[in-house]
Protein 1
Amino acid sequence: MKQFVTLLIFLGLTCFVFAQEEHDGITAVTLDAITVSPVNVDYLQKVNDGNTPEVVQELQYKAANFDVTSLNEYDKKDIHTFEVVFKASNGDIIASYTSDGSIVTAFENFENIVLPMTVRKMVFDGNEGWKMEKNRYICVFSEDNLTKKQYKVTLTDGNQKKKMTFDFDE
């Protein structure tokens, strides 16, 4: 039995040896590097920065990578723009696409989200003891430009209310 197992192991190893031989006539081919970027990379670069909340970023990536041809209404010849709504539990993005999949306009509206650290620092700097009652994030993108990026925050301290607006437009 030992001889049989030894023979099987020997035969198995010889198969691996033959499999690793170089074959004459076969040459390796080197391919050029290809960079693939989404159609809406301009949209992402304009609306997404260090002051963009994570929940908004997730929806922005979905909007940027959306395939317009997957729509039932898609007809490249008849309709010039397509409006698609991307929803999250606390907001949405309404994006208009051309027939080739480029975002022409996008309106982002989110309420009561976790604000990025830089915005939180700006809100509570000089407002110790105040509590955030609500907040709203608005971003408007139109024709390859960021036209509005804004946070509206309402703070309370007992019966007092304070409303603050932070603009991050270009």
Protein 2
Amino acid sequence: MRFLLLSLALLLATALAPAHAQKALPGLSEGVQYTYIEDGQPYQTLPPGMVEVAEVFAYTCPHCAHFSPMLDAWGRQLPPHARLTLVPFVSGRDDAWARTFYAAQVAKALPVLHPRLFAAVHETGDLPRTASLEQITTFATRIPGVNGPAFQAALRDEPGQLARLRAAFEFERRSNVENTPTLIVGGRYMILGNSFEGLLANARRVVDALAPAKPAARVAPKPAPKPAAAKPAAARH
């Protein structure tokens, strides 16, 4: 029995060690480049070795509007083991902006609609921050490149909408998101920075620190030295 308990304790310690060890990242400092999120989890499940960079944003946030093109350009330079994911801030099940985001995502209209929504709120004034879902839908379906019927069908898919809203809300709650924009890497590292440039630089440092370990290079064995040729015996006179 004592052996069994000892084995179980060792097994648990081994299972918990990686998560605890990852709290400290090589070359980085908690409280400087990031804040560690206890019991944090990524927004989405990615293949082993992949790292999620999640941005929690709001279309009504002027800082998010300014940050969006910078983040887009930065995301295109990510290494192969990292993936940028956008997560709308969800205030409740009837959040019109979050519902619009997920309808556009399902209708494959997000690349076209995402920047246009920011511009409509913060540049042209076509949409107020308090716009209703009907107002946003009328605006969105008039944009070239947006499949209106597909967008509206995605809006009417209540089970699908609620599942996505719930996933985003739970991610934001367990990550202690209080402001937008917020970057969270790997579900556990909330990125810090005194500027947008600093935020992106620190996010990249964390992404690089979480890169999968490269296998050690195999060193080819050196060939065995050839035996020296025997010298001919000296002639005797």
Protein 3
Amino acid sequence: MDLCSIPGPIVNFLPVPIGFSYFLAESTTRQVIAPNVVTPVDYRNVIYNRMNEYNLFGSQFTATRAGVYKFCAQTKVRGTTAATSGSLTLGLMVNNSVVTSLAVAMVQGRTCIDANGCATSVNLSAGDVVRVVLFSTTNQSIIIESGYFEGARTS
């Protein structure tokens, strides 16, 4: 069994107060990422979507209420060939601007790496759109094998 194709671990955000946003979506389909391009990560397998603020087609969260939010994301990545090398940055984008780096990792060949992290205090206004993006400076394309994206309003 290839553990790179299984997303997780998942941060346990529950319990989230009633009336507060919470979503969890997985990436279970391979996604090829070209070097030197900020690329949104696809998380299309929705597990939870309280308040219906997560759009699986855009793999994005749209806040319907202002507040402080917590977001966590993970990607399991590998190079396309044994010669693939370089770094990648997993980031959080709000309204088309990268606001924070969640993880930085080194890619070496076809070895599976796990890049994950959380942003614990993201202030959002109603209507703000949040996505996870990946940027690589590798010498070749890389492949996202799996991952997850989750978030919740905390206040």
Protein 4
Amino acid sequence: MATVGQDPTARTARSAPPALSAAAVAGVLHGAISLYWASGGDWLIETLGQRLLDAFADSRWVLFPVGVAKIAGAVVPLLLARRGLLNRVPWRVLCWIGALGLIVWGGLNTVVGNLVLADVIRPDGGYDHAGMVGHAWLWDPLFLLWGLCLAVGLRRSSGHQPPSMVRTSG
């Protein structure tokens, strides 16, 4: 029953699993640094690696849409959960794809980067130390953290399993 002056069709904010908030923080941080670099900032830019810096030296503007996409991808699952929309199949599937992609990308690159730094893997022609450290210890672990938090948040929201595991009755 609506109280006087209250819109009975208005959606009420719902709580979201804390892991979705943590995922949003990780993704917004990742996106914010991309926007910072796109705007001409140089702090930590050497952690991208010289090859990337050379490739995009005259086109840092490309990082604007990248940063916006990261931030959108970080906050949309949290907003969907708070609006009670995260369990709608298209959103849930998209979020699980994002979580798994972040986990695979961040996890593999973190492991490989650390194996290179430990001299277990030796790339032909050597490697850019600052770039490898940046990817092995900062950017890819942040992708991994973002993905893991998103997956935990999805699991703890009311649809408890990845879409491929959801049982249907019939």
